[in-house]
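User: Predict the structure for this protein chain, please.
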Amino acid sequence: MQKVNSAESDKNLNNVIKIDEAQIKDHLGQIVRSTVEETLNDMLNAEADQLCNAHRGPQRPESRSLQA
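Assistant: Here is the predicted structure, written as structure tokens:
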């Protein structure tokens, strides 16, 4: 009886999804890197806006003031 259960158990294990840990780690690394990069860029842009007292983005000619 024990051998039948063991054989059946082995057969069921063949239907289990196999996970490629290296691929998962690589994908998670890419996600973390892109998230950190995006966060740092947002922080740098906010700091630049604060220092310049301006907002990044397209400039409209009517909003520009020329100082001589």
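The radius of gyration is 28 Å.
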